[in-house]
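Hi everyone,

Forwarding the result from last night's run.
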Amino acid sequence: MIFGRFLKGNKSISPSHPQTTTPRPDGKKSETPHHAARGAFDGKTVSLYHWTPRDAGQTNFGDELSPLLVRRILDRNGLADVAVQPSGDGPKLLAVGSVLQQAREGDVVWGAGVNGKNWPRRLKTVANLHVASVRGPLTQRALQRFGFEAPAIFGDPGLLFPELFRDEIAQAGETVRRKYGKADVIYIPNLNDESLLPERFALLPEGVTLVSPTTTPVEVAAMVAQARLVISSSLHGLVFADACGVPCRAHLSAFEPIFKYVDYFEGVGRSQYAFHLTIEDALEAADLARVQIDTRPILQAFPFEALGLIPSLDDRNI
């Protein structure tokens, strides 16, 4: 699926308004929307899907957000005794990231999205899926094409991280200043870009500091919070910039389709955006349009009931 056109002598890409054109896998439209099965979770454990890189010991900060966020939300709502564990064979929570291709019978979706590389074809065999919120309208349309109800509650839950982990990020500020020095402009590559094209970052433009996506989420957030500009081919680098109110520009990943980026941009109300082929191009470009993001609907959509949980506190507002 390709969106947009090339600008500036093929140096930048500015997508046009995207449409989800892939049909339902069975070629039909469901007459009755699918609903979630109830009672699939025991109220004592949240089984959470958590993608990890194949390379042993390697992590990607964006994919580390879901267990951290879910744990923090449970703790803030009087559910510290509820365990969060990696998903097994049964129903699971899909939270944060382009992971809907992993959805199976009885699963619960909170803020996750469709990956442009892997269309979630297995959903044609799923009868019960509870969708509390999604990353953006492209994911919503994709789910609707499979016959599922998907509310218009948009936004990557990573937007919650800077506020929910405010104290930890503040404490990490001095650590990252010692580690990186003065870093007004930071570049956060997508994990595949950094892993498979290391020569791309051997010599960055002067004044640009590389922040590896294998850095912890708290340290990445601390770097973003003190930056003047964020350039990123990592989606969650852009998410963190938006959450921290820091200007940002999108660098085109060599490996990631732009579907997930456009899905996120449209979900937060950013109707104009550009992707730049080089970091040098990004340095000369305009910032992505600033957006005012209300994170309360994302937090309020956390699927306590679908997970069999009853919060003893009401701390769902930031």
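The longest strand covers residues 129-133.

Cheers,
N.
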